[in-house]
Amino acid sequence: MPNDLSIYKRRESEARSYCRSFPTSFNRAKGSEMWDVDGNRYIDFLAGCSSLNYGHNDRDMQAALIEHIQADGITHGLDMHTETKQAFLTAFEDIILKPRNMDYKVMMTGPTGTNAVEAAMKLARKVTGRTNILTFTNGFHGMTMGALAATGNAGKRNGGGMPLAGTTHMPFEGAFGPDVDSLSLIEQMLDNPSSGIDAPAAFLIEPVQGEGGLNAASTEFMQGLARLAKKHGALLIADDIQAGCGRTGTFFSFEEMGIEPDLIPLAKSFSGMGLPFAALLVKPEHDIWKPAEHNGTFRGNTHAFVTARIALEKFWKDDAFSRELAEKSVQLTSGLQAVADEIEGATLKGRGLMQGVDVGGGELAGAICARCFEKGLIIETSGAHDEVVKVLAPLTTSSALLREGLGILLEAVREVNTTKMAAE
Amino acid sequence: MPNDLSIYKRRESEARSYCRSFPTSFNRAKGSEMWDVDGNRYIDFLAGCSSLNYGHNDRDMQAALIEHIQADGITHGLDMHTETKQAFLTAFEDIILKPRNMDYKVMMTGPTGTNAVEAAMKLARKVTGRTNILTFTNGFHGMTMGALAATGNAGKRNGGGMPLAGTTHMPFEGAFGPDVDSLSLIEQMLDNPSSGIDAPAAFLIEPVQGEGGLNAASTEFMQGLARLAKKHGALLIADDIQAGCGRTGTFFSFEEMGIEPDLIPLAKSFSGMGLPFAALLVKPEHDIWKPAEHNGTFRGNTHAFVTARIALEKFWKDDAFSRELAEKSVQLTSGLQAVADEIEGATLKGRGLMQGVDVGGGELAGAICARCFEKGLIIETSGAHDEVVKVLAPLTTSSALLREGLGILLEAVREVNTTKMAAE
Amino acid sequence: MPNDLSIYKRRESEARSYCRSFPTSFNRAKGSEMWDVDGNRYIDFLAGCSSLNYGHNDRDMQAALIEHIQADGITHGLDMHTETKQAFLTAFEDIILKPRNMDYKVMMTGPTGTNAVEAAMKLARKVTGRTNILTFTNGFHGMTMGALAATGNAGKRNGGGMPLAGTTHMPFEGAFGPDVDSLSLIEQMLDNPSSGIDAPAAFLIEPVQGEGGLNAASTEFMQGLARLAKKHGALLIADDIQAGCGRTGTFFSFEEMGIEPDLIPLAKSFSGMGLPFAALLVKPEHDIWKPAEHNGTFRGNTHAFVTARIALEKFWKDDAFSRELAEKSVQLTSGLQAVADEIEGATLKGRGLMQGVDVGGGELAGAICARCFEKGLIIETSGAHDEVVKVLAPLTTSSALLREGLGILLEAVREVNTTKMAAE
Amino acid sequence: MPNDLSIYKRRESEARSYCRSFPTSFNRAKGSEMWDVDGNRYIDFLAGCSSLNYGHNDRDMQAALIEHIQADGITHGLDMHTETKQAFLTAFEDIILKPRNMDYKVMMTGPTGTNAVEAAMKLARKVTGRTNILTFTNGFHGMTMGALAATGNAGKRNGGGMPLAGTTHMPFEGAFGPDVDSLSLIEQMLDNPSSGIDAPAAFLIEPVQGEGGLNAASTEFMQGLARLAKKHGALLIADDIQAGCGRTGTFFSFEEMGIEPDLIPLAKSFSGMGLPFAALLVKPEHDIWKPAEHNGTFRGNTHAFVTARIALEKFWKDDAFSRELAEKSVQLTSGLQAVADEIEGATLKGRGLMQGVDVGGGELAGAICARCFEKGLIIETSGAHDEVVKVLAPLTTSSALLREGLGILLEAVREVNTTKMAAE
Description:
Chain A is of the alpha/beta class. Chain A has helices spanning 6-11, 18-21, 47-50, 59-70, 83-97, 113-128, 145-149, 154-158, 182-191, 219-231, 302-315, 320-340, 362-374, 399-423, and strands spanning 26-30, 33-36, 41-44, 105-108, 132-136, 167-170, 200-205, 208-209, 215-216, 235-238, 263-266, 279-282, 347-351, 354-358, 377-378, 380-382, 388-391. Chains A, B, C, D: This is Diaminobutyrate--2-oxoglutarate transaminase. Chains A, B, C, D: InterPro entries: Aminotrans_3 (IPR005814), Aminotrans_3_PPA_site (IPR049704), Dat (IPR004637), Ectoine_EctB (IPR012773), PyrdxlP-dep_Trfase (IPR015424), PyrdxlP-dep_Trfase_major (IPR015421), PyrdxlP-dep_Trfase_small (IPR015422).
């Protein structure tokens, strides 16, 4: 089949987006590389927006999934008991929960991040008898009406077509610059009975904001929120959909912060292989759902149970992977610093394998990413003004490939700078 | 692994539901049959709530999917162009749209029915500049806050934890019994400028209500809604998530009604194999989305593109399958009539391969389904009071298996009747 | 000062309305008559939309109010105890509550009907812990956002500028014509747990709909609502703002229906003299307000306490006034029948001194009222299409004046008919 | 009638409030003094919460009102043209608007502040096509559902019984202490397209917060809001219900700030005599109401037109009154400083004749006010924690009476201090 894209114009909705940045047709992917139908090879620094933390088509996941299919294993089982689900839950308990002394129940939600977030919001309201979810500037939690109300982006919010309800947006750490303590403002608002901020059912926060510009909350900030949540009778919801599953260097992004969120939405890389899968981790005392009170057809994607279990067993049985990630983070920081040094006023954002460069504006960031793509690197922007060039390479990317990709990025920046200067 | 279910109590949320009706652990499925870990065989008259219209693990879909995986085909590609997606869209255009003279664009939404419904509601509001979506008694459209507002079930609605907004519930055909014309009531409400019913952005209706009790709207009713929609400047959204993909005997449930819905949410069996997948069909003139205005990570599940294409090519290239379904519908009606004859006041509900028996109450229906399971038949209830025993067998169920399953159902009804009489 | 109206164009908002129907400047009023600055005399069949049930400037109310002012009686006392308020409450207890065996507490709300309605809606939600107020087609309850949500009129609702929440509109008696039993529809909706109608906090109904077209609910309908409210744990709110204070022939419009509403908003004629005043009658068991939980500066208009007490003492100490009203109702019906006989298809609406003629359309009704004004009669339309010519003469209008006014109306109808025929 | 208050317990709702602070029964009032039925005299430093800026029963207003009543002047005229209304509008134009070069139209709303605020919110939404009204911490705007959403007080908000919509609460000047610039925070929130703060229809602010603790916005802050409103396409609504009508020393509280609010709700003292009356001033270009789009029975209280006109003519024809107020403000500040000096950490709040002392806590402030009442001074608290002792004496209070009242306050503070020390 030729690289003819007319079918998309004719038959796919204008809502499509990433394909506009990467105007080719892909047909093969392995590890951190993708190939298009013309045989061109690309390094993937987007990784399905962090859905492919273990790279494309991990050999072991492929093998297990093929074996499952060949054995007529369950493909779709609603939320019935299946051997596959049992094995996954057992692995999750043994490999993730127990070693971290975490006690959570797994709620299989519809296989989208937004569904897990909606389940969390509904449950927080049910547990507290309150409606107001405190969310944060630049937060991104999903497109369905409940989660959209918790999302900051004006364009996305306008897509709702009617006023969004049930949330109040609080300043994320650093939202007003380094001299204003967001946590203190939030505490003052909550302590003032005439602030107009209704008693919170929950704080809903991404420990590292993926879409919002790689803003990473500090341990102090997260601990402060945990304290405020307790003080005001609210739950703490850590949305680890993009930052979880190892992206920041540990399985959970908040793992070393000494906090225990009440609810934890997971999705994206949770299936290991990029299959649709989402879940909400719930502290047992909050698991007051009635059967089917939040239901859905695809709760639990059985193929994803297969690959998710492999991901846990292969990468998280000991701390080898985490140590590897720590090293790569250093390499990434160093590579991005070189990039930032080329751009006046540029700063580094994020942490772990979730870092980027704030280049100061969306136009420049877009030009850099477009140039990268021409040079064989898939990379995207982030931030309220699309001003951050964001690296979300698979966690399994080899040091060499990481270096190659960062090299392309550096070259692209230099070329864009040259073009810019020529134009001035 | 033994059939030990303790992990579910320990680690899965109380929200789980179907597993309570079918207390065993499944590990294999093919066509219309499932097997548990102890080797027990079950006939599946639930079919993933109509997500497995082509049966479990269709051989051709399995083969194509395995081939795709082995070739390192894209597993997750966000909404980028992929050869796989292109092939799917082309097949959908050729096999479904063109022969039916239908002109729609496909919006890949998050891979859940509720996400496709939310996208439809948002788009209808955007197109009309209005907010009020007219939905129907006993309707079921999903669990996220937008779609939940369009769902009738009180238990599900209460799960929202706060008032739901943006919808008005209208009486479905026959909601007030045979002597009250729902369509006329709706028209009078809309014609009265002081009715308090705000100008509608859309009608959102399931042509056959799956969860609501297999209520099948007539051609007259659907045409009437289409007329009212036009008259009042509203869109018509036909939610074909459960009733579509052949369930009623044709690919779309409304196909022979002479109407052209503006928006058509699809999910459940759209992937062919039970993989998470959903889409919204949009008339081109309404496709006014801005890029990424409704986005999401798993829009387009590439594995599902593979199997969905096979499903189209295998079952819908000509009308053989439809003719087969027409015959099976007759067989199903006849079998269910025999069941209904055993229960005083029982009536048949639904149409096509989406039929059931209203046995008059939820307790009886529940007892029948429980007895069926003991006898090796997986079947569930439906309806506002769970009063309908609902058959959603795979469309590919052989005549013999259909007969066997219906036979179990009949026996179960007789046994329950006997037990009841003994108790009285 | 000349009858120069330019100041209104220059300085009064376009929201002004009644002055457009009656384009002159009034400066004196007594009983059922008004005079403009040019000395023209008008019979008043509008009576401040039923705010002047005892006529303009009742001699005894004038005297009492002047005496109060001259004695430096309290004009504004917030909701402090005043001798005047005490006297009013005592009179209300003795003259209205005790003889009717009614046990209610009086909540002084802001002095507008809409404020009393909002207080009722808030209290019903507080008492039941539910949010959904069931209101009715063609209902009118006020312009502030809570009451506006309970109002049916589309134009008024659009004025809200955003979606209105917290109410569901039910069909008033006869809303779908004589063959459809609204009460039965409502009961079916409430009995169906999947109807999408959330559990009601209250029914909010005008026993006779003033703005909605003089639709008078029957005793059976009101009793049915009372029964449904009890069955479903909802309160019954009888909005007697326009129909109360004698307008239907008894002090409360529902007085002879054998029902006991939980909450009764009163306003309009409650002050006796047309002064701003409103209150909410609350069954003692529902009076769970915390102090100042619903507050406001003008709760309790002390001047109105003076005149309201006179009204009670003068008109309601025995049943003479009610008997007089019964006679006048007969006269009014008879006069309106003569009017209706002139117009093909016209029907009588309403009851007591709250009657009118549905002339079939708003254009005709408007023409009739305009002609009336030219002939010295102030009268207005009502109804979803402004199709009802509505008589709201002061209850104290003499038989002779009533006859004179009805005579003008009859003439006006004939003249309009003649003009119409000439034009055809 | 004896001072028997049992009728209130028996027949007035628990919502009553001020009467609990002042447990006696009043029957006469003149100027700045009130008398109870036992003949006790009280100095009134509450003035109907600023509704009696010209004192109780102003001689000239009494005379004009009595003359109007005796002449059978219109008492209630809906919103028809009346000689009385014409005279009022003309006086308002001549005395208030013209000398200030202000061009506004007067919208007669229901005669409560909350109704004027609701009209403003509705109109701002209509003009801008947006829904979000930005309101402020500690703001108070009314009890009906629209205005309540703009009010900060948690107790009042909870009275709503359901989530409130359509507003976002911003920090008032100084809300986070002197080191955080609220205006800058607001600007940053609005400039950030991902802040989650929807595009504003309006800013709604009290230039001096009456209920919220006498927080007075500076000229810089108000000018900043005016600038932000313009920048972001929003209207500026200055709620001058409590701070207007001379309370701060000029007719409008913002008069010397060089800003031109788009909408100005007025009520409380606008009638001059404490009669229910409210209006919304609207810049002509925003007066896009359709006739009756916001209506109501008591729009325009004709008695209030009479007294309101007298108030304008008597007090505002020249700047003598303003100069007098300036002097009294100095006296008030000085008296309150003496009070503050008695209490550790106490600070002065407010400006003009709207000043008070923040005594640090509600218990102490309550004890002081209670002691004042025992000593013959009516005075109330204000603030989120009721921590401000607030002086709202009539503007016409003589210097001698002001001194006497302040003397009582000082004594009360000393006595409470002594009691406190004794208890420690």
